[in-house]
Input
Amino acid sequence: MKKLNLILITCVFLTNILMSQTQWINYTTLNTGLPDNDVFSIAIDGSGTKWIATWGAGITSFDGSTWTVYNTANSGLPDNYVNSIAIDESETKWIGTRGVA
Output
């Protein structure tokens, strides 16, 4: 019986440790610089900047402190409906939109 109790206590203890190390953050237009909540793709470049493809609001980059939005009005992005983004070994960003890329 003591062995069973020790196993149960150990399992509860380990579960608490594992659960306390997992911290999820929900990013939305209400608490970030995201222009839209419809996120279709995320890529992270070599410097750790997150590149977020949105459906209808272009691309947003987040470097850990600053949110920057790229869309048809302020960049060479051909369409604000972005469904994919990838970054290759040379840090080139590959963008897929609904019409042209």
The mean pLDDT is 83. Residues 37-101 form a domain with the Thrombin, subunit H fold (CATH 2.40.10.500). The first helix runs from residue 2 to 21. The CA atoms of residues 22 and 29 lie 23 Å apart.
